[in-house]
Amino acid sequence: xxxxxxxxxxLGLFFLTGTGCTTEIWKDNSYSPEERADDLxxxxxxxxxxxxxxxxxxxxxxxxxxxxNWWNEALHGVARAGxxxxxxxxxxxxxxxxxxxxxxxxxxxxxxxxxxxxxxxERGERERYQGLTMWTPNINVFRDPRWGRGMEAYGEDPFxxxxxxTAVVKGLQGDRTGKYxxxxxxxxxxxxxxxxxxxxxxxxxxxxxxxxxxxxxxxxFKKLVIDGDVRMVMCAYNRFExxxxxxxxxxxxxxxxxxxxxxxxxxxxxxxxxxFYNENAHATHPDAKTASADAVLAGTDLNCGDSYPxxxxxxxxxxxxxxxxxxxxxxxxxxxxxxxxxxxxxxVEWSKIPHSIVSSPEHAAKALEAARKSMTLLMxxxxxxxxxxxxxxxAVMGPNANDSLMQWGxxxxxxxxxxTILQGIRNxxxxxxxxxxxxxxxxxxxxxFKSVFDQCISEKGQGFSAQYWNNPDREGEPxxxxxxxxxxxxxxxxxxxxxxxxxxxxxSAKYKSVFTPEQSGEVFFNFYVNGIIRLLIDGKPVxxxxxxxxxxxxxxxxxxxxGKSYExxxxxxxxxxxxxxxxxxxxxxxxxxxxxxxxxAGADVVVFASGISxxxxxxxMGVDLPGFKGGDRTDIALPAIQKEMLKALHEAGKEIILVxxxxxxxGFEEAADYSSAILQAWYPGQAGGQAxxxxxxxxxxxxxxxxxxxxxxxxxxxxxxxxxxANRTYRYFKGEPLYPFGYGLSYTTFSYDQxxxxxTSISTxxxxxxxxxxxxxxxxxxxxxxxxxxxxxxxxxxxxLTLRGFQxxxxxxxxxxxxxxxxxxxxxEWWNADxxxxxxxxxxxxxxxxxxxxxxxxxxxxxxxxx
Length: 867
Fold this sequence. Notes:
Blueprint: H1 7-17, H2 33-41, H3 46-51, E1 56-57, E2 68-69, H4 90-95, H5 99-122, H6 158-173, E3 186-190, E4 204-205, H7 210-217, H8 219-226, E5 232-235, E6 239-240, E7 243-244, H9 249-259, E8 265-268, H10 274-277, H11 288-298, H12 311-316, H13 322-338, H14 361-374, E9 376-380, E10 394-397, H15 404-408, H16 421-429, E11 435-438, E12 447-451, E13 456-458, E14 461-462, E15 464-469, E16 480-484, E17 488-491, E18 508-515, E19 521-530, E20 532-537, E21 540-546, E22 552-560, E23 566-573, E24 580-590, H17 593-599, E25 605-611, E26 628-629, E27 632-633, H18 640-651, E28 655-661, H19 669-674, E29 677-680, H20 688-696, H21 729-732, E30 750-752, E31 756-757, E32 761-763, E33 768-776, E34 782-791, E35 802-811, E36 816-823, H22 825-828, E37 829-832, E38 837-840, E39 843-850, E40 858-866
Parallel strand pairs: 3-5, 4-6, 5-8, 10-11, 10-25, 25-28, 28-29, 32-40
Antiparallel strand pairs: 1-2, 6-7, 9-29, 12-24, 13-14, 13-18, 15-16, 15-18, 17-24, 18-23, 19-22, 19-24, 20-21, 20-23, 26-27, 30-33, 31-33, 33-36, 34-35, 34-39, 37-38, 39-40
Helix pairs in contact: 2-13, 5-6, 5-14, 6-8, 14-20, 16-20
């Protein structure tokens, strides 16, 4: 925490400056952020104050205050602002069970964020995704595998969410001992929030047992506030016990502010205050002014959205006082001063981080290491893995085999380069003749995309003629004219122009061609775009998109007639940050399983890259396919078309190695029958393909562990909308999972000695330690994830066991390492029914240590806690 300057020093500065009463304290960085905020508050009109309480702060020119946009993202790399290093999706990083790795990853991300911020600022850009307030981490408990956004969180265990979330915060914010903070992180979404996506604006999480609230939904937030000193908390869209979370006194005042002592900024999820008064949402308030007043009074300082401008009217009508607004605005001003955002770059040490570090080779190496550590081997029949490279012919198949966008996950930046699974295998073998590529299927559809870009002929030849203007409105004569004869793959990151002579920003383009299809049917125009795009067919506009959230996948489809010519025109303009335009055109052809099996007949082994995609599971999506609803899943089984292909390959005698990419648990029961090995690769980021190949061929020994339970089917799950924890997650699930929490295989084996306690009986205010020796008994050097669980046998309503420690350790083959856990207050706390809180609690406990949450993998030590 920053310390205020002593009063005597401030008084000395006051007289030394000779400025007397005319000193503008808020402009003087020798004063504390709190004092500067108090001074600036006196200078602002009511209208100006309100303008500073929305995410896009307008400039206040009379005072020289520049505009500032609070909205920025860094879920697993700087997001939606062009070029950046893309690390594995958080659920994949959680699979590494490695706090230090997560800290290092987010220290790297914060370097890139600072460098990009100052790069943009030097060019006069202060837009969304260019600021210093990063709205991450997502530490909601992944309580149900159907939740589409679960991939953004750190698994189903509240302790793990807290430990890894705190590492995220510390990596982003730095140590906070310097004059300025590096960045500000944001714990979200507070609280009791994990789907469904389709009704989140009206959903009421109700009848939540106090035990579930304090034992499952709140611990990670508490840890980030108290141990992580997180500077922002985002309140969730849903209601909690009938009251919208962003206006909920119990959550925001009683617990967050008063009990935990949080003194940072609370912000609403975007347009979440609108839900207070929208008739199709919560509709708990009549209008924007009453909703906004209640939200501020409850403690929500910043509105992402457009409701808070009504606060001017709310003050005029007596719904809230200007002094009450000042409480919230003061916190916002303090944050801006803490970041140095109102001071010149020359005074901010973080501005010295060079822009050249963004997406640098050094950062790419860190992305590879994170991807390696996330790899989780779930099945390895008869030691099918690792594969031998020599003389091997590998067929690479599946919807995720050659899909770089899938690997990026969601809330992502754009890497300089991405190694797909196909490319990783080709690189590993070093001989393309050893690799047969046959995609075979899409994720869910029984059709597959077939490009017909080569059927587009422009006046300049095959492909599209291209004209570029070095202005955003295509004014005057084009500055550059050329031709594009392959599917578009343009990105201005790394100072890479769309074509020689074209600006990096503030440019526009027009692409023209004539498409003459060889067959009739529905043709698809596929885009991945960051900018403004418009598609015209025969001169008529049929599709347009303006990217407001970074690069997004878009699609337009239309019926075509064989032999008929269609004039295709694309208009593009740079909009914000770095421009990006990927484009292809093609048909969806029916999947032909026998033909695909025949094409891989010569392969010794099939690597099938199965799973789903962040274009199917995610935030409030409009996906309407079997097994998906609004970004959530209705079925966790591997999609039917993929199982059909696996079955056919198996019946053809092929050995199948399943490499699954998903952000959530997949039901593999049938797929496992057809496969020799299953590697869960998550959404592994830019280096995922290399990490997969290294595991497949034994260049890296996997040690990832499941941060979520893999169930057999949805039949094992309670109602998705029931937020009570009974029979949810490994902590309460009484059935038999497919693969349990904490589970993962290695190419070596480990044995554990009996754990030893420093004390077998302690008082509630004492600490102890547990030591256990772990030996690598196999033939490979490897890493083991040593996991510590707590159990209270006489508590029949509590968790069956609950994670309270984990360490990822390297052990050379044949060697033994001693691992020690400190049994501190947060490790030994338990539900205290009298206090209605989690506290150290007297009783008999079992400490269980081992390589997964399975009982047969755990070794027990008894501990008694006395009052």
